[in-house]
Amino acid sequence: MTSTTAPTPALSLRGLRKEFASPAGPVRAVDGVDLEIAPGEVVAFLGPNGAGKTSTIDMVLGLSAPTSGTVRVFGADPADAIAAGRVAAVMQTGGLLRDITVAETVALTAALFGSSGSPVPYLERAGIADLADRMVGTCSGGQQQRLRFAMALVSEPDLLLLDEPTTGMDVEGRREFWAAIRADAAAGRTVVFATHYLEEADTYADRVVLVSEGRVVADGSTTEVKSLASGRTVSARVDDDGERAAVAAQLRALPVVDAIDHRGSRLVVRTADSDDVARFLLTQTAARDLEVASDNLEDAFVALTTAATASPLDGATR
After folding, report:
1. Strands 190-194 and 42-46
2. Does residue 223 share a domain with residue 256?
3. Same domain, yes or no: 165 and 277
4. pLDDT for 200-247, tens place per residue?
5. Which of 81, 202, 261, 314 is deepest in the core (most CB within 10 A)?
6. Judgement on whether residues 16 and 82 belong to the same structural domain of the protein
7. At how many degrees (to 10) do helices 141-153 and 171-186 cross?
8. Backbone dihedral angles phi then psi of residue 218, each to the nearest 5 degrees
């Protein structure tokens, strides 16, 4: 009989907690995170400001020690994995010398890993080969982010961590950047990225991990995470002001209606049962121009993180 064993996870977090001291007492930035990421996954790590994303990334990079719990990167301690060149990161700021060129920056990074090869292949993959002779200090914020990406590629890491990687990039730059990331992922590299551009997560991630108050509140594909919010939006036009107010009052009495918003002559209804709301509007009112839309990732993000803040969980939910 042939036995098979599961591959070692690219990243494994178990009971991960991180506390910081403050005048008011300890602040828990990360609160019992359990997370496992397989090799080759592209995972979006999302959450509102202060959710614990950067604190978690810092622990994965060995920049900060957990208060409790464990971090394993390809089965090893983060410091050992980084020393072996298996992990690299693109951070929001720092790490650049302004008075040398783009090419010299990448060559210097390569030298740290014992490589004396040309920096050009990494500049090409990052889409900045035409900036090779430009001084770093004269590069835009978006160009500097792509330079950090080129630097991260030098060690050919198995795990690439990106913290708000497209900050400062224009729309075309972001598109080219993600094309390069997907090409690397297709070759087997694991990518974990934190971003405030939710459409990036929706478009480019295989999986979304949503954190709030230092805990995981949702984990799955973008479709699965959207479905957890269990909501749709029904909007309809009611021209008469008095009649629109009356329809809104009737809608609020329906148990399936979560919220109602007035947008000019339209009523926008958030509901867990769009069929019931649509049927009511079409058969019981003078509403017209009915539209039904599923939640997008932003809707799910707001709904799930708001729920987590209002009703804190005792641990990671998934």
Report:
1. parallel
2. no
3. no
4. 888 889 999 999 889 998 898 887 887 666 567 899 999 998 999 999
5. 81
6. yes
7. 10
8. -160, 145
Residues in contact with 7: Cβ distance below 8 Å, sequence separation at least 6, in sequence order = 38, 39
Residue 194's closest CA among 233, 236, 165, 237? 165
Q: What is the pLDDT of residue 208?
A: 92
Say which amino acid occupies 233.
Answer: T
For residue 40, give its domain range: 11-86+157-227
pTM, to two decimals = 0.74
User: Given 204, 227, 250, which residue is the final one in a domain?
Assistant: 227
Write phi, then psi, for 100 (nearest 5 degrees): -125, 170
- Higher per-residue pLDDT: 76 or 258: 76
Distance of CA 240 to the CA centre of its chain: 43
User: Which of 184, 201, 227 finishes a domain?
Assistant: 227
Give the C-alpha separation, 147 to 145, whole Å.
5
* Contact status, residue 62 vs residue 47, Cβ threshold 8 Å: no
DSSP H/E element including 137: none
Same domain? For 33 and 79 the reply is yes
Distance CA 273, CA 231 (A): 8
Cβ partners under 8 Å of residue 266, min gap 6: 235, 236, 237, 238, 289
Kindly state the helix (H) or strand (E) to which residue 47 belongs, with its residue range.
none
Is 302 within the bounds of a domain? no
201 and 81 in a common domain? yes
Do 50 and 165 share a domain, yes or no? yes
Q: Is pLDDT at 315 greater than 50 in this prediction? A: no
For residue 312, pLDDT beyond 80:
no
Residues 179 and 270 in one domain: no
| Domain total in the chain | 2
